[in-house]
Amino acid sequence: MNVLELSEQEIVRRGSLDEMRRRGIDPFPAAEFPVSGYSDEIKETFADDAPRRDVAVAGRIMGRRIMGKASFLELQDSKGRIQVYINRDEICPGEDKDLYNVVFKKLLDIGDFVGIKGYVFRTQTGEISVHAQELIVLGKSIRPLPIVKVKDGVTYDAFDDPELRYRRRYVDLIVNDGVKDIFVKRTKVLNSMRKFFNDHGYMEVETPILQSIAGGASARPFITHHNSLNMELYMRIATELYLKRLIVGGFDGVYEIGKNFRNEGMDRTHNPEFTCMEIYVAYKDYNWMMEFTEKLVETICLEVNGTTEVKVGDNIINFKAPYRRVTMTDAIKEHTGIDITGMTEEQLREAAASLGIEVDETMGKGKLIDEIFGEKCEGSYIQPTFIIDYPIEMSPLTKKHRDNPELTERFELMVNGKELANAYSELNDPIDQYERFVEQMKLADKGDDEAMIIDQDFVRSLEYGMPPTSGMGMGIDRLVMLMTGQSTIQEVLFFPQMRPEKVQRRDKEEAFTTLGVPAEWVAPLYKAGVYTTELLSAQSAGKLHQELCGINKKFKLGFKTPLIEEVDQWIAAAKPASAEE
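The chain above was modelled as a monomer; its predicted structure follows.
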């Protein structure tokens, strides 16, 4: 890397790296460092009257206080932070004191990894610390961390820009307290969910991510090409149709936790790839699944948070079962005053338009009802609420309601104004299923790019017979948002999808050399902020000459400094012909 592309601190750190190597210290050693203690456990178990405990700890240096022959450093490991006391004569018992005087004091930096062997003690100020007897360099950081400082409850130099935090999650995890805890809770959520299912005797399975037909949901897929088979494939939008094939195959209960992919919009609650759980249980219906779902969510909340109540924004949400149940029709009537029962497609379109909802001719009855509910009702359900008995047009994979053939046995669990789970009494009539797929294809012909494609193999599997089954899907990312009190999905994804990072446009070296600029001076021009010949044409010769001379001296480039007249010629050559005339 060109030295001019580095900051001053990066140059200093690379110099320290080289100096370590000259002294025979490997800044990136391969050997194992046997860690025997972690910050949280050391502090929790320490007792003043207990025998001395020898420990080996390792982590990043996050702070130092150097005081002559003795110093303190703050070590951050995977569990937290602990203070380390460093005494020169203890880590350098012989005549050579360079490990302390040079390596520790001058060559180590904030962010470097070190291993400490010593014993646990309490300082005179009462802080439980590690008394170092041996210090080993484990990893050199050549890029400085942002240093977040807190004084009298006020945070300075916070690393809090959302775009930077999500792009550089590794830095966010290091410097911002509480971020790692969110992802620890995410793992606890998944562990709790798996345990709940496993304890009920259901089996975790895996199904294809690359699929020849994107089925199981109404969504726009990502498309890719398989070279060997010379065919288009889709990144799955749901796991449903493959999991139901397994019920046909004889499993009583299966579930999958994995990634789905939908080529749709991005916002505070949507990411193009997301983690979803789907479970299917034979011989059950949606009434059973409602009770199962509310018990699942209540159990997860208790195991993750120790309580059924969670604060999300300004709302206190209580996940204690049972949850309220409201039909889709009643929900729309309650929030809009419109009874959609028996409405035709045109009547629904007029009703939606009267509510100020944007509609078009591609929307069928199901899409229109979904838009009305989403725009006018969904956001009102803060406490966990089951919205049940959806119109048949909204649910092409769902069994007709046993009491009303215009409806289906479906529910969605709404929490904090958003859908958390979606479940059905699964459609197992192959003839009915095929006819529903045909209706979906008619919507596709009208221009609905989210309508389902007929999956002939899935219909064939149903023809072999599928027992009565209930299935439920739940968004894991949204569940974690609720369990951790976060309002954006990006906060619970390690690496959310981001727009391409903006890069400063630069003209190539040849664009400058054709103007008479020597090749070695192109990089200093970049350093001076002159990235294009257009920017060069707008420079003042005297000012640019002075800046280039300063860069040459500061970075010890050793280049022959151009005359001010030469710089003036570069600028003149860069000006457009019309400007010269």
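The chain has a mean pLDDT of 93.
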